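hey so i finally got around to running the thing on that chain from the lab meeting. sorry it took forever, my laptop kept dying and i had to restart like 3 times. anyway pasting the input first so we r on the same page abt which one it is
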Amino acid sequence: MKKLISGLLVLSALAIQAPTVHAQGMSEEGNNASETAPLQQRIDLNSATIEQLVTLPGVGQSKAKAIVKYREEVGPFLEVAQLTQVKGIGEKMLSKIENYVLVK
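ok and heres what got predicted. didnt touch it at all, straight out
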């Protein structure tokens, strides 16, 4: 009988701890999945400098210069998706940086 009670106590202790561990895992997952800069911290594609653009994930000097050059030659960006028309920026790159930029 003592073994049965001890076993039940162990199982109930595990059951109580399991949701807590699971909730922490969900919380960490949620933080990683929503890597979105707040609107006031996003970079405006139509006024950003090269120095600001290189802070974006995956954007180096050459891509930053290409963005500025495109803006100078074609005109202001009308939407963020227009970045795919810049040399060296495709859909994959756009998906990395679209949460960090905006168009005013």
